[in-house]
Specification:
Mean pLDDT: 89
Number of helices: 10
Shape: globular
Strand order of the largest sheet: 6-7-8-3-9-10-12-11
Helix content: 25-40%
Strand content: 15-25%
Structural class: alpha/beta
Order of helices and strands: EEEHEEHEHHHHEHEHEEHHEE
Number of strands: 12
Distance between the termini: 28 Å
Radius of gyration: 21 Å
Low-confidence stretches: none
Length: 319
Amino acid sequence: MCKEKTPILESRHLNKVFTAPDGRPLYANNDISLKFYEGETLGIAGESGCGKSTLVRVLSLLEPPTDGELLLFGENVAGLKGEKKRKMRRHIQMVFQDPTDSFSPRMKVKDILCEPLENYGLIKPSEKAAKARELLKMVELPEEFAERYPRSMSGGQKQRVAIARALALEPEILICDEATSALDVSVQKSIVELLVKLQREKHTSIIFICHDVALIRSVSHRTAIMYLGFVVELAEGKKLGRGVCHPYTEALKSAVFSLDMDFEKEIESLDSEIPSPLERPTGCPFRNRCEKCMEICAAERPQLREVEKGHWIACHLYA
């Protein structure tokens, strides 16, 4: 019998609850249990407001979970504070949607790239120029870009710099939070290809956040679909949406525009917006938008069940 791989990072029944101005609880993440393995990409997809970005902020130790466990290398880091927390953060780095917002316009590219290394005392001032050139080469940018300012670069070039900066500390986990959504389609493709190449070379675990199910499916080894703070489906990337799937996943898949789609088939859309986390429906969180809603859906929240090997769905249709 094959022994299961040990995850680098694992969340166990993770919850994140904020308090609204009127005192009501806002449930951003609910009972999230996920495993992240070396050299694999876990995609996380869902509409805006489903809790994706909050989840990655918790996973990257930028936000503490309200409760639950977060295991990094087997150690529960959910309650870490101070210097211990800062040291753990170097193992999980993030690439944001708009790199411009995370760059200082007064800093040259070489300073942006080497800032994380300086923060952890891993580089001397005399080594910065050579290290910057090395990092630029890694993301396929000319070495002379080290003396540039971000304002003189295109969106795709700035995102490559952001990837290089995130990988400067050689983290085990790289989080890409909508890292391609602000780019042109052709540039998106080149950035995704770069990420795949770097993952193959460095065996980095990637968490890829996106609302595009087709893109997620093409780059991820496994994919989690989130809705209203819950994981409603977890499957191997290329199998997602083929055969049985959660009604919400089916709706997301139907909304994807593709040149290969059947243009005679009517494009289906969800009739209403995602409910507020302050006013979650009882039972299944998706029931007020689901055409297959049953009586039990209003009374009982479905749990993730393995419907086939490696494929989990939280839906009463597959009880």
